[in-house]
Batch of 2 targets.
Target 1
Amino acid sequence: MRRLLVLVLSALLATAAVGTAAADERIIGGERASIEANPWAVHLTDVRGNQFCGGTLVAPAKVLTAAHCALGRSPRDLRVVAGREDKQDRRSGVSVAPVSIWIHKQYVSADKGEDVAVLTLPEALPYEPLPFAEEADAALYEPGTRVRVLGWGRTAENGRTSRYLLQATVPVQPDDYCLDAYPQFVSADMFCAGYEGGRVDTCQGDSGGPVVVGGKLIGVTSWGEGCARRGKPGVYVQLSRYAQDLRPVVYPES
Ligand code: 4AZ
């Protein structure tokens, strides 16, 4: 009975949300993004189709996501949804179970670093992958660099996740700013991004998803205190730091 009520209420809310979509689209403080322009953007769901994380196609059959999105899950309990901008549009794109999950062997928790995982798909997908940053790409993390974050996560700290793919642009902050915000911040393995006043950010459900600059995947959405709060930037995996660990998993044939 309660579940029916929840179902009816969420249906009503979903209808209401469609009507006001243009007024306040977000990740938080963001806007709609098309899947055509961002074909490598994927989301992860459970077997029932509930979306809980993001990911990026980095090779035709490899999805990079956060370790905390994959940990404790079996491949058969997971689905990678690709080619689908609207989570409710079952006719677009594909939903596939991975055949295997690789989690960085040093991963403990998101705020300790190594928050990376790779899902291997049963076959190549017909969507353009996005290459990840490598050792030589350190300049892409310079403070002030405006980076693009994408996902289907919450559009308010305690709100619902987004039906549509959203994007926002946030500036990379200097390491001392990130450390002031979070004493556990690990400068070598992470970067943080956001405005000092907050307002624009990733949120729950965006984890595992892409941070993009200059046609490269430079980060993975990882953690933060709340969402879009003043003085609490989003924290992202500094992918160039993990390129060496990722290459043999993403390109096993080479
Ligand atoms: C999360 O819980 C999460 N504001 C993702 C991103 C941020 C905070 C939390 C950054 O998945």
Note: The longest helix spans residues 2-20.
Target 2
Amino acid sequence: MVKKESIGIGLMGLGVIGGEVARVLAARAEVLGGQIGCPLVLRKVKVLEADLARPQAKEMGLELFTTDAEEFFSQDMDIVVEAIGGEQPAFDYLKRALSSGRHVVTSNKEVIAKHGVELFALAQQHGVGLHYEASVGGGIPLIAPFQQDLVANKISGIYAIINGTTNYILTLMAKEGADFPSALARAQKLGYAEADPRNDIEGIDAVYKLAILASLAFHCRVQPQDIHCEGISRMNNRDFRYAQELGFAIKLLAIAKQTDNQIEVRVHPVFIPEESLLAKVDGVYNAILVQGDLVGRVLFFGEGAGASATSSAVVSDVVSAAQDVIAGGGSRAKWVLEPGKSIRPMAELETRYYLRLNVADQPGVLAQVSKALGDHMISISSVIQKAVDSAAQTAEIVIMTHPAKEAEMQQALDELGKLASVKEIGNFIRVED
Ligand code: HSE
């Protein structure tokens, strides 16, 4: 045990998350200090010049702030809380904090996903902790359960809605028949989607989060570039109508599975049965279903973003780190990496597919389409033809397949696209039963 009068905190960033963390640390100082055994004292806040004009900075007292990293790191701090986000300069700051013997708390999914292994090694080397509960699922406890409560399990699967923005957009498309651009515009108006929404809608945010969860769960380094990624921008409200008719919901799922020593990791839109638990998760909520061999299925559900929920995870990590400081130690958090695991190539995936095609409305076209699929050992389980555009002499057909190989499906799609009778491949969506 180390006798401390107080625990010094340095905070980097006074944006949505940093600002809320500062507020919570001040508002709950007594209770948090009671849990630790001495007060938490905010010693310095590293900000950008523009942040000094924020009302919160003025309220807190400008002497608490610095724009200078040298001045920040020269403070007497036990814990550095990083709430800047993005890869740089956050990564350099985290390395510097760990190398100078400070425990670190971060909400930065991009840095942990890309550089977690290096940072954990640095934390071990310097005998300090690296805490990152807020990096995945906002306030939903996920990192601690994987590190502690589920540790006796062999995890076979993670099926997760881990991006609230895209789940909100897909919910609007499903429930209100909105098209993608107007659903995105509403998400932006409500502040759920950024002005530049690419990270969310193209699935990149979910990829970072899945890389972290899969690395933790499967004891294997899963990097963002290992994860097959497709976003939701090609979704059309017609797909939602067909999905409902066929008994499915459409969700952007982050999926990680472990079979033998092979890890399958992918983020893309999927058809899931409408009666499944994840199909009922609407709006900005997140839900993470974990399958363990001992525990069975466990579902984590809650607010995956937002200042308040995220500050819950950050401040809890600060308390854990402070308890470690008092206990005189260490690096509890680390990724266990087992040898012999590999990432399964996406081409080897076997699943069912939904396919929507716009074709010439003339004899023999269905036969051509089924031949292109049959040539790749793709068997059709059902076909719907509804919409016919008599002026254009085209028809829309929807095909559900039996399980087929991804590589074969990609080749079949390529060949279908070249058929004169196929005017457009409207969409193809994998099915997760
Ligand atoms: N942009 C993310 C989401 C929240 O929409 O879920 C931050 O991880």
Note: Residues 307-327 form the longest helix (21 residues).
